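In response to a reviewer's request, we include the raw inputs and outputs for one of the modeled complexes. The two entities were modeled together in a single run.
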Amino acid sequence: MDIFVTLVHGLNLAAIYGLMAIGISLLWSSIGMINMAHGATFAVSGYAAWFMADLMKPVLLAAFGKGFVGTAAMAGITLTTGAAMGALFGALIYALAFLPIHDKPNFPVRSLIVTLAINLATVQLLLWYFGPKQKNLPKIFGTGKLDLGPLSARYDQIGAIVATAAILGLVLTWLRVSRKGLEIRAMMQNPEGAVLSGISVRWTALPVTMLTGALAGLAAVLLSQTIFVSPTSGTMPLIKGLTIALLGGLGSVPGAVAGAVIIGFLEAIVGAVPFLGQRYVLFATFVFIITVLILRPRGIGGLLDEARK
Amino acid sequence: MTEKKFYEIGQRPSEVILHPAGDAPLHRRRLPFTRRHWFKWRSRLNAKTLEQERMLADKRPLWWALGLLALALAAPFLSNPMLTIAAIFCIFSAINVLWTLIIGTAGIFSLATLAIVGIGAYVSAALNVYLGLPWPLMFVAGGLAGLVIGGFLALPSTRLDGLYYALLTMGFAEICRVFVQQLKPLGPQNGSINNVASFIPSDWQLQRPGLLLGFAGAFVILLLALLTFRVVNSERLGMLLQTAREDEAFAEATGIDYRRARLHVFLISSAGLGVIGAFYAQFYGSISPQVFSLDQLMLLFAMIVIGGLGRSEGAVIGTAIVVLIDKGFLNLGPIRILLVAAIMLGVTLFLHNGLAGAREQFRGWRRRKQSEARARRTEKGGEVMPEEAIEIADKQEIYYRRFQKRLRDRLKALITPELIEEHRQNPLGHHSDALSRVLNHFRRAEVADKYAIMRQPEAFHAYKIVAFSGTRGAPPRLVDDRTYHDINEAYHAVFLLRVNDLMEA
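The model returned the following structure tokens for the whole complex.
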């Protein structure tokens, strides 16, 4: 086994899981909703990106040719479509699972159930409309390999890692500097206090759901460089994102990042060890998470356990 | 003696009410070996008819008995596919009832239900197939396996809260699935164990008698699960946990070890789930890793969510709906799951606690609407409405208010500008018939808020209008600041005030 291949693979996985986990974690800490429809957002955005790419392919080929510009335009279009569709789906989740019941009794459990139902329905609709056949997205980072001494990485891996780092940086900066970000952070620290100082729950929740949806959409486009788009392709990222968000401690963004890195490397290593192999990846992940949770019941970060219960 | 027919007023005019002899002592039979009564009877004396009345305060046992009886009686007449669906319904209901015990009564958000069922099934099936354990002992083996796994899973349940524990148990199910699929001896059959001995004789398999026997077995399992639920949830353990649900600190202060009680409930349910697992393996004659899958778990979760978390009737109703859609309309294809999702969505958006809580929610809503409407009416008329009438103990009051209302209506019709003009010109008499009637009504008014004329000390002909407080010792209050210098003018001012009050009443 090549240690550097494993390293790059681990970073790649960590990047994509991180996008999912931070979405789930943000949503929980700001509006107290566990979004089980995150996987559906993932799948829908993947399909939207595929559809758009299919539609625009001849146009772009005619306009820019097959060179670097064409690939860049294609990348722009797929990424934008994925993110936009994710944000739209996030708005749908907001309209169905947050708006009607956010001030009613049992909101956390009921929103979880509603998002679960949305997930079930979306997967079935996709299966019904597009069929179980897998689609593959255009290679937006091109195909090929980059060799840097002993390090060698495929373009899509590098692209995913760099793009994720950039997106996460942007999101975190936006949360830190913008007015809306301030409101969201206030909501995370003390929901009641935020409401008392004039922050509207409804108008804060909408950008959060749309933002997390867009993150899931970007994750879909980035992950689809390695795997295919299919109706059930959202299930695994959802479970991974959820477990990492919980492992990092729900509501803690640094915890989620740490969890994503740990799990990403763990999976890469377990997958690369000869006598364990790819079949034991999930097994190893869950054994690890169970051990961590028994040692640290609120996860690695676990900072908001008192505020949100 | 002839029965007098009364108007049917009140909330439930059609409720069945027994009329036992007034001097007959109350006999209530108890469940054998317990101190519980079979039914919850309520007795009361009807103050109007002076009769003893007795009614069933809790009719749920009746509905349960009727529903289960209908299922048992209908089973022999069902077609073969429907009979299988009924049997599957019974098995899943039993699982869900025990799961409800874990989630509702113990308050542990465990998703390892199907994992425990699967482990019970695998252990008992393996013992049967590889070691030749006879089928009656499989139930014991399954129960023991469930108990051991339950004990293992219960350890972290007090340390972790809600979602973290749910994740842990979900991970446990996944580990079970991978573990079983990787087992070397099961490799050729893709992780499943086949040819498990069964309580159904092998030559009856998939025949009508075999299906009937299978249904009977599943029905017995359901009854046992319901009995377990009843015994655990509404006896000592359930009562302890009820206290803990309302206030954990209080429960601890009164010496209730609720963590221990939760563990006990979890262990009991796990053992029961293990037994159901053994039954599951026998019913199908095989067991496959499919039982650990996430999809199956989600479907099961949909069942208890549609029914309502934490109630046995909810678990059974939800299971009936989902099983009927999922297995009954196989020709619909993927729309089945869409339908289940749509029901789930609708139920969760509109109901606070599933279908089982719908009745209570509806009653609450109706009560609110009724009280709103009542407030509106009382504000307007002053006459007592039927719903309000049953809440007034002194029935004289109702007739008094009705009389007053009619009288006021009659007098209002008499008030005309001519009448007022007549009073202005001649406040002290002689009056016409209409004016006498109006004035007589005013004179009979209650002392509280009755108007009076008070002579002012500064001048002999200076009057102000006051209103009596109605309580002894409390001084009258001044109605307005205006001073009248003519007594007749003051009389007329009082008259106008009263007319005004009458028209507004």
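As requested, we also summarize the result in words. The mean pLDDT of chain B is 86. Chain B has four domains: 1-56, 64-292, 293-382, 409-504.
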